[in-house]
């Protein structure tokens, strides 16, 4: 049966790149595991920002950092 928590976990693991094959999704059980996942999300966010700023277009006169 799927409860709200299971669905949220499913959505999270679909958005974050993991490879489980046919195994069940892992459950975050400890604070250390949670901190690791937060660090991963922060790193992915930084990659997204870098990608977005580096692909703004060639006709812009703005500095990519601005």
TrEMBL record:
Q: Which InterPro entries match?
A: Poly(ADP-ribose)pol_reg_dom, Poly(ADP-ribose)pol_reg_dom_sf
Residues annotated as domain PARP alpha-helical: 12-66
Q: Please indicate which superkingdom the organism of origin belongs to.
A: Eukaryota
Fetch the Pfam families from UniProt. PARP_reg
UniProt GO MF annotations: NAD+ poly-ADP-ribosyltransferase activity
* Name of protein: PARP alpha-helical domain-containing protein
User: What species does this protein belong to?
Assistant: Rotaria socialis
